[in-house]
């Protein structure tokens, strides 16, 4: 058998070509045995000495491409070519050597770490790989080191983790380039190496407070500037970026409270605005303190100090020619209604706020009505009435008054004056509405027939109170009673039982109404009571009807007769309308249709065809049994018949034809029985060119017996039967 070198792993070193040697126990070294090698790489990579079994490598092997080979070996007798040893398998493993340098597959690297991070903070990790065999020797064992980046960063030799070596400020330097080296063979001499670059960016944190560019700002604003005017801008710098540099501005000190400040989030500027009007004459300089505060503060850096800054802003007010200023913006005045013309309502006052103190001229503007009711003294501003005022027409008057500088008329100011007209008791109370009161003829004494109330146009501060009573001089005081309910209403009651319409149809009650004004006013209001033909309960509709009839002076019987006549007239009118509508529906030309129907003769005899000449008397067809009476419109018939006969021999362009058409047109225009709209008139007119002439007998002045039908025999075979019929008939007639 083969020695124990079979079925074992043989490690091949690349320094020498000899790999190993195979030897059989039966080999007597006499050259009778032959060694044969088969398998992966046999004959190409590996060769065997067939006499002594030595195996050689013919080319350089690379473990990273193929780490092992599986081969088969056997020994045979040269003479017999029979196997001396059975075939055995063995493996040749390629022993690794350090022939591959490390590689950073993910480089170059980019990492970010917050500024001011403490020492030892992990930044990132780099990793290198080595293609050599990590299980054999130190060829694949790597060691990391920092080539560039001290003293700010460090790297762990075995893991490649990069850490902060000191605190760094982004505002000083915001980016660093670090170079990391990886060596195999644990850094021993002869080791292979590779490097990678790591770009480390420092991210911003809020570690810097805002700082104003100036400790003192100077600004100015005109006293004419309206509210909201931009006075100026301030700016505080912050070395941080993004939200860490965001800030808000505040006004810390402003005794006049005349200014406001807002933040422009895009430019991070503080914009000072005018909060209310300033006055040069009142205060010429303003002093305010502005503060800038970081919007987002990192609590880790609070110990570094307050993240805010302050500055001083001095604002000068510029003088301007201002319009007059009223002592108050709105005036409220009072005057009693009815005050005589020229009464003083009140006085308004305006002044020129400037140093020159220009005189003021006053006037009333806008409404022409107000100018008619009020006037103003243009020098002292006194407002007086030009006529008495009535509170019931208008209780308030709104006046717009202007004040104008006499030296500069363009400077004008306006003020509102509200004039209240105070009420006096100058209007007597009246009925609240027009009452319609009825009393039944059979009403009993003490029966309520009407409740009344009153209104007063005057204004009563304590509320109105009215007293109701019946005038003492009333002649009907015995018939009715007025009872005051003490709640601004009163009831009208009957003072007796039974009323007669024939004696008195209307009662007029003078009712006195007194108010509680100072002095009290009294008015007399007449209540009309109508006697109604009813029992005790009033029917408003029936009573109104009775009153209406009474006003017309008609009795019930007379009214019924009038209504009956009206009804008969309506029936007669409707009948006439119906008859006329039926006449309109009658078809036109009915009279002509009747004429046509009169000329229709019906026969029930059945003929025998053209060959039957004995079945009926053809003369009956030619007999003019019906003689129509010509109407007046036919009095030109004879002339038309003559023209018609003549037209048979002429063409449509002849004078006879044109005369025929003209006369027909004249006849149609003068005929009143034709429809009122346009119509088509059709006339029979046979042109020239027919050898037979006209067969029509219309309008013929001669009878059939006077005519000769011999010419029918000349018309050919188609008229043979007709010619025979007429010829035989004429012969029989003769």
Automatic annotation (TrEMBL):
<keyword id="KW-0325">Glycoprotein</keyword>
<dbReference type="GO" id="GO:0045296">
    <property type="term" value="F:cadherin binding"/>
</dbReference>
<dbReference type="GO" id="GO:0005912">
    <property type="term" value="C:adherens junction"/>
</dbReference>
<dbReference type="Pfam" id="PF00028">
    <property type="entry name" value="Cadherin"/>
</dbReference>
<feature type="transmembrane region" description="Helical">
    <location>
        <begin position="558"/>
        <end position="579"/>
    </location>
</feature>
<feature type="domain" description="Cadherin">
    <location>
        <begin position="105"/>
        <end position="212"/>
    </location>
</feature>
<keyword id="KW-0165">Cleavage on pair of basic residues</keyword>
<keyword id="KW-0479">Metal-binding</keyword>
<keyword id="KW-0732">Signal</keyword>
<dbReference type="GO" id="GO:0000902">
    <property type="term" value="P:cell morphogenesis"/>
</dbReference>
<dbReference type="InterPro" id="IPR015919">
    <property type="entry name" value="Cadherin-like_sf"/>
</dbReference>
<dbReference type="GO" id="GO:0016477">
    <property type="term" value="P:cell migration"/>
</dbReference>
<comment type="function">
    <text>Cadherins are calcium-dependent cell adhesion proteins.</text>
</comment>
<dbReference type="InterPro" id="IPR002126">
    <property type="entry name" value="Cadherin-like_dom"/>
</dbReference>
<keyword id="KW-0812">Transmembrane</keyword>
<dbReference type="GO" id="GO:0016342">
    <property type="term" value="C:catenin complex"/>
</dbReference>
<dbReference type="GO" id="GO:0008013">
    <property type="term" value="F:beta-catenin binding"/>
</dbReference>
<keyword id="KW-0472">Membrane</keyword>
<dbReference type="GO" id="GO:0007043">
    <property type="term" value="P:cell-cell junction assembly"/>
</dbReference>
<feature type="domain" description="Cadherin">
    <location>
        <begin position="213"/>
        <end position="326"/>
    </location>
</feature>
<feature type="domain" description="Cadherin">
    <location>
        <begin position="431"/>
        <end position="541"/>
    </location>
</feature>
<keyword id="KW-0130">Cell adhesion</keyword>
<feature type="domain" description="Cadherin">
    <location>
        <begin position="327"/>
        <end position="431"/>
    </location>
</feature>
<dbReference type="GO" id="GO:0034332">
    <property type="term" value="P:adherens junction organization"/>
</dbReference>
<dbReference type="GO" id="GO:0005509">
    <property type="term" value="F:calcium ion binding"/>
</dbReference>
<keyword id="KW-1003">Cell membrane</keyword>
<keyword id="KW-0677">Repeat</keyword>
<protein>
    <submittedName>
        <fullName>Cadherin 19</fullName>
    </submittedName>
</protein>
<dbReference type="GO" id="GO:0044331">
    <property type="term" value="P:cell-cell adhesion mediated by cadherin"/>
</dbReference>
<feature type="domain" description="Cadherin">
    <location>
        <begin position="24"/>
        <end position="104"/>
    </location>
</feature>
<keyword id="KW-1133">Transmembrane helix</keyword>
<keyword id="KW-0106">Calcium</keyword>
<dbReference type="InterPro" id="IPR000233">
    <property type="entry name" value="Cadherin_Y-type_LIR"/>
</dbReference>
<dbReference type="GO" id="GO:0007156">
    <property type="term" value="P:homophilic cell adhesion via plasma membrane adhesion molecules"/>
</dbReference>
<dbReference type="InterPro" id="IPR039808">
    <property type="entry name" value="Cadherin"/>
</dbReference>
<dbReference type="GO" id="GO:0016339">
    <property type="term" value="P:calcium-dependent cell-cell adhesion via plasma membrane cell adhesion molecules"/>
</dbReference>
<dbReference type="Pfam" id="PF01049">
    <property type="entry name" value="CADH_Y-type_LIR"/>
</dbReference>
<dbReference type="InterPro" id="IPR020894">
    <property type="entry name" value="Cadherin_CS"/>
</dbReference>
<dbReference type="InterPro" id="IPR027397">
    <property type="entry name" value="Catenin-bd_sf"/>
</dbReference>
